[in-house]
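Key result, reporting period 2: structure in, sequence out.
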């Protein structure tokens, strides 16, 4: 009888230590949902247009007026 009482005391002690923290439900995080939105701008058209505008700006800024050439003056 004494062995049974000792065994039950040991079992009760170890089982209470195992449940000391209590039950906590596992936290399940939902995975984020990725939604792809359609692009309204067309990058395939914008780049050539910007290049064309840049070329036009460079061409219009070219100065076709010839400046008179400096001539050397001989001081004799």
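The corresponding designed sequence is given below.
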């Amino acid at each position: 009888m004494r062995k049974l009482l000792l065994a039950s005391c040991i079992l009760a002690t170890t089982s209470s230590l195992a449940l000391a923290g209590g039950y906590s439900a596992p936290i399940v995080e939902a995975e984020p949902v990725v939604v792809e939105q359609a692009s309204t701008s067309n990058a395939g058209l914008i780049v050539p247009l910007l290049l064309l505008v840049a070329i036009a700006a460079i061409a219009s800024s070219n100065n076709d007026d010839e400046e008179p050439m400096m001539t050397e003056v001989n001081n004799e």
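The first helix runs from residue 2 to 18. The mean pLDDT is 76. This case is discussed further under Risks and Mitigation.
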